[in-house]
Amino acid sequence: MRRGPSAFNIASVALGLAFLYAPIVILVLYSFNASRLVTVWAGFSTRWYVALFQDRQMLDAVWVTLRVGVISATIATVLGVLAAIALTRSRSRGRMVLAGGVYATLVMPEVILGLSLLLLFVAAGLPRGFWTVTLSHATLTLAYATVVVQARLQSFDRSLEEAAQDLGCPPWKAFALVTLPGIAPAVAAAWMLAFTLSLDDLVVASFTSGPGATTLPMRLYSQVRLGVNPEINAVSTLLIGLVATGVIAVYLIQQRRRPSP
C-alpha cells in the first residue's frame, strides 16, 4: 500500500517554492502600487505602467535588449545545432577539442569572458555597440543551446534518417526533412534558453556595449544604484510575463509533438 507524502515533505516543498517565488509575487504586486515608496502599499494603480511607456530611455533599453536577445539566440541556436551534430556523430580526434571549446563558457566566469571579448573587439578594431553585444551574447549562450540539442540528438533514432537516404535523399535533405522536425522541441527549448540568458546578462554586456547599445539590465542597474523606482517593478513584471509566456509555449509545443500512449 502506497502512502501519500508526509507532512514534512509537503512543508519542505512549500517552503522551497515560497523561497523561490515569493519575491517574484511581491514584485508583481508592488508594480501595481500607487505609492512612490516601494515598501508602502497605497492602493491599486497602473500609474507606473503608464510612466514606463512614457519613459523613452527605458523603452529604448527594452527595444535594444529584445533585438539583441532574438538575434543572439538565433545565432547561438543555429551554431548549437551544428556543434551538437558534430559532437554526436563525429568520431575524429578533434571532437574533444571542439567539446572543450564549446563547453568552456559553461564554467568560465562571466567577468573573464566579458574581458576576453572586449580585448578581442579592441584588437579587431570593432567599435563597441549593438553588434558587439549581440556577438558576445551569442558566444555566452552557445554552450547552453548545444547541450540542449545534443541531449535530444543522442536519443534520436538515426535509422529514420538512414532510411530517407536509402530512398534517395541527400544527407542534408534527410536531416532537414526527418531529423530536424524530430528535434524541433529541443531546438525551440534551446532558443528560448538562449533568449532568456541574453535578457538576464549584465556583466558581459557591460564590457562590450557602447553608445546607443544600453541593455535593460544595464539600465535597471544604473537606476537601482540611485534608488528603487516603482517603474522598475513594472518593467520587471512585463519581462516575467514575456519569459513565462515563452516557456509555456515551448512546453505546449513539446506536449503536442509527444506521441500518445
What does the model show?
With 261 residues, the chain is mostly helical. The protein has helices at 7-30, 47-52, 56-89, 94-107, 110-124, 130-154, 158-166, 171-182, 184-200, 203-208, 216-224, 230-257. It starts with 6 loop residues before the first helix and ends with a helix. It has 12 helices and no strands. It has a single domain (55-257), classed as MetI-like fold (Orthogonal Bundle).
Q: What fraction of the residues are assigned to beta strands by DSSP? A: under 5%
Discrete helix count: 12
Helix fraction by DSSP (H/I, runs of at least 4): over 70%
Fourth-level CATH superfamily: MetI-like
Mean pLDDT: 83
Poorly predicted spans: none
Report the span from N to C terminus.
Answer: 26 Å
Q: Judging by the overall fold, what is the CATH architecture?
A: Orthogonal Bundle
Q: Strand count, sense and closure of the main sheet?
A: none
Structural domain tally: 1
Quaternary organisation of the protein chains: single chain
Going by helix content, strand content and strand pairing, the class is mainly alpha
CATH class: Mainly Alpha
Tell me the Rg in angstroms: 22 Å
CATH topology: MetI-like fold
Shape call: globular
Instruction: Tell me the number of strands.
Output: 0
Series of H and E elements: HHHHHHHHHHHH
